[in-house]
Amino acid sequence: MVPAAACCSLRTFPRWLPGLLALFLVGALFLQPAVPTDEPDIVALEQQLFRAIEEKDRSALDSLLSDDFVLRGSPDMTREVWLTSAVTLCWGPSWDVQQVSVRAEGDTQVASFILNFYRDPLTCRPAILQSLITDVWVRRDSGWKLWLRHSGPVGESGPRGQYSPVPPPPPPFEGRGELSFVSTGGNASTQTLGFSTELIRRHARTTTNGRASFLRSATDDIENARVLTALVRHSVRLSDRVEAFARGGYLRDNFAGIQHRMNADAGLSYVVRQPVPRALKFDFGLGATRENRTVDDDQSVLNATLGVSLRARLSPTAELTADAQAIADLERLQNHRLLSDLSLTASLNSMWSARIAYATRFANEPVPGFKRADHTLSASLAIRYVRRAPGGRR
Fold first, then answer.
1. Domain assignment present for 394
2. pTM (predicted TM-score)
3. What gap in Å lies between CA 9 and CA 240, rounded to an integer?
4. pLDDT for 179-191, tens place per residue?
C-alpha cells in the first residue's frame, strides 16, 4: 500500500515537468551528429551533365567524367572526342528524360533512361530524336564519376528489340557482265553492240578489280564507232578511312584519233563517313600517260588525277552510281581531260538486273581534227555472279 505522504507528493508534481523533459529529449536528438553518407543522387548528377552539355561548359563536363571514360560503340569514342563533340555539336537547348532506372552495387551505380531531345546535333535543325542511354557511375577518390556510357535507338520490347539487322560484308569474289545490242533495218540499217565485264577480288585489307568494255556501231555496214577500254586497280586499306591504290588503264578509239592510250598512277583514297545506304570516296594520284595518235605527234606526259565516286542505294532494288575523274598535265594545265560515268541499276532478281548508263569523255586539247567531247548513252541487261565467304562458326 502506498504511503499517504507519497500520494500527496505525486498529486502536487508540477504539470509542466513532463513537457520540459520531452523538449530536452527532442533537442538531444537534433543535436546528435548526422550520420555521414556519400550515396549519390544519380538523377542530380545526370542533370548536371545535361546542363553542362547545354551550356557547352567543358570544365564542368571534365569534372564529371572519369579519366578513363569511354562511349561504347563500334569503334569506341574516347573521352577527348566525346568532350569535343559535346561542346561543338548542337545538343539542346531542350531535353527531357523518361523511364529512369538506377541500380546500385557497392562503388558502382548504373542508370538507364530514355533521352528525348529536339534538335539534330549534326544539322542544328529542329527534330524530335530519342535515345536509350545506359550510364555507369563509379566512386573515385574525388567523388562519383561517369565511367562508361552506351547510347542506342529505342527499340521494341522482346527479343527483336535486342538486336538490329547488319548488312552482309562484301563478297570475296564478284563478277559482272553486261550486253546490249540494237539493230535496225529498212531505210537505215544500223547495228550497235556493247559488252562490258568487271571482276572484283577482296581480301581482309586489299581489293583488286578489273574492268573491260567494248562498243561497236555501224550504219549501212560502215563502221562509225569502235571503242575498247580496260582498267585494273589494286588498293590496300590503311585505316577505316584511307586507302593506298595503284591502277593502270588502256583506251583504243580510232574514231577519236587515239590508236592506243596507256596510263598508270598511284595515290591515296579517302572514304567519307556516310549513312549506310551511301558510300562516298575521293582519289588523289600522280602518274603518267602515253598516247599514240592517228594524226599529230604522240604524247608522253606526267599527270595528276583527282576522282570522286558515289554509290547510293535508292531502294532495296535500285542503286545509283556516279564516278568522275579529272586528269591534268603537270607541265601544261590546259591539256586536261575529264571523265564521268552515271548509271542506274535496277535488280530483277539476285542474278539479273537492268542498267542504264551515261558516259562522257572530254579532252580540252583533242587530237587535231576531232571533237573535244564524246557521249555514250546505253541500256543493257546485266548478270552478276557472287561467291560469298563461308558462314560463321556455330
1. no
2. 0.61
3. 96
4. 988 776 766 678 8
